[in-house]
Design brief:
Elements (H helix, E strand, L loop, with lengths): L2 H5 L1 H22 L4 H18 L1 H27 L4 H15 L8 H21 L9 H9 L1 E2 L2 E2 L8 H6 L4 H29 L8 H21 L4 H24 L6 H17 L5 H13 L5 H12 L2 E3 L5 E3 L6 E2 L5 E2 L12 H5 L33 H4 L7 H7 L16
Antiparallel strand pairs: 1-2, 3-4, 5-6
Helix pairs in contact: 2-3, 2-6, 3-11, 4-5, 6-11, 9-10, 9-11, 12-14
């Protein structure tokens, strides 16, 4: 065993033991020397490892979202201390400490499964070199060398020579076709996973350098996998393809059920949640109540999708409560303020704007049948004392009404009242 393999011996022994246990299970079903028994053992190893890494995956999601939130503040610090790198680093660390964010948390799943990856690589490499490793004895070593996946041995590589492949009882063509297909699938799954993250689960309201870095990684990672994949044994390619598919499915679940605020995935999720709430008239489970509770607690900080969700409930006479419940509004029409907060009291109706002729004649008669109050005391006859009217009656009262009826006649070209004296310059 070489120096690197001896360095990973603390992990190669547990990995080989897990593979042997799964092999004994699948060997009883498919046969001990078949590729199905050994291939499914590797797949089961991946699933077991990824289940154990779920808590780290949750931390990765929280850390990634926290980093997205901090990007504007980080950009301000970089611009403020662009000439002082030491002060810039100090302010960055201070920001991380205040917000409880760890930039390395987003890399925890990859770092945690790296020892298992290298351990499996050395286990399969030892099988190719006809060396026992861990708990794999000579009998298991011979069985593993006979195992083929679609004609390619578990320990064969894309760059192996024809003689080496012939020693493993296989043809070079079969090995190259199987390994090339696995490398393409492995790179495509990595690209699709990253693209799904960038197009659906990123806050589109914040444009930061972090998004540009993620877009770059979306194209760089598949190329890295393709370059290094030609030196991986078939068994390692099975491991890496399985873990990529697991990551893709796990991320699809998170995006569908717990999307990033402000992302397109959140818009789709809130549309589904709104349809469900309108159909049942309430939130049905704890997860839905937690989402509604978080939206209500944001207040003015709600994004456009969350405001649209609250407004949709208010139009259906539903009100979101602080505890996440959704109840029927007591008012006939639930009012929503500018910040998106739901109020059970309807808005006060604004008075109807009167036309110019209505204002001149004292206003329109309201629907209730009561006479409106006069807009000005000088515009109505009823406000004058009865004993102040001259004997002529209506004829002498006509000049008093010049502000109402007389004004409309004046607009038609007939002048009323005292004429202004002509200027002396026009004589």
């Amino acid at each position: 065993m070489d120096t690197i393999a001896s360095f990973f011996s603390f992990i190669t022994t547990p990995v080989s033991w897990i593979i042997v246990q799964f092999h004994s299970l699948y060997g009883a079903i498919f046969g001990p020397d078949t590729g199905w028994a050994w291939g499914l053992s590797i797949v089961s190893l991946v699933i077991l490892i990824r289940i154990c890494l779920i808590p780290l995956f949750v931390k990765q999601i929280k850390a990634t979202r926290a980093m997205q939130t901090l990007q504007p503040e980080m950009k301000k610090i970089q611009e403020r201390y662009k000439n002082d790198k030491q002060r810039q680093s100090e302010e960055m660390m201070k920001l991380y400490k205040e917000t409880g964010t760890n930039p390395l948390s987003s890399c925890l799943p990859i770092l945690a499964q790296s020892p298992f990856f290298f351990a499996l690589y050395h286990v399969l490499n030892s099988i190719a070199q006809n060396d026992t490793i861990g708990v794999i004895n000579e009998r298991l070593l011979e069985s593993a060398q006979k195992a083929h996946i679609f004609g390619a041995p578990l320990a064969a590589k894309f760059m192996d020579s024809a003689d080496k492949v012939r020693e493993l009882d296989a043809s070079l063509t079969d090995v190259r076709i199987v390994t090339a297909l696995m490398i393409v699938l492995m790179s495509f799954s990595q690209f699709y996973t990253q693209r799904q993250l960038m197009t659906k689960n990123v806050d589109t309201t914040v444009k930061t350098p972090f998004m540009q870095q993620q877009k770059m990684l979306m194209y760089v990672f598949p190329i890295i996998f393709a370059v290094f994949g030609i030196n991986f044994p078939v068994g390692v390619l099975v491991y890496w393809l399985t873990t990529n598919v697991w990551t893709m499915g796990q991320q699809m679940y998170v995006i569908h059920n717990n999307p990033t605020p402000g992302s397109k995935a959140q818009a789709s999720y809130l549309e589904r949640l709104q349809k469900s709430v309108l159909q049942h008239g309430k939130t049905r489970n704890r997860r839905e109540r937690a989402i509604v509770k978080a939206i209500v607690a944001k207040g003015r900080d709600r994004n456009e999708y969350e405001r649209k969700f609250i407004n949709g409930l208010s139009k259906a006479n539903l009100a979101a409560q602080a505890d996440g419940a959704v109840v029927k509004s007591e008012a006939s029409a639930v009012a929503t303020d500018e910040d998106g907060a739901v109020s059970a009291t309807p808005r006060r109706q604004q008075p109807k704007r009167q036309s110019k002729s209505q204002r001149q004649t004292g206003g329109a008669k309201p629907a209730g049948g009561t006479e409106p109050e006069p807009s000005s005391p000088s515009l109505t006859k009823s406000d004058e004392p009865q004993d102040a009217k001259p004997a002529g009656g209506a004829k002498k009262a006509a000049p008093k009404a010049a502000g109402s009826g007389g004004r409309s006649k004046a607009q038609s070209g007939q002048r009323k009242g005292q004429q202004r004296p002509k200027s002396s310059s026009k004589k």
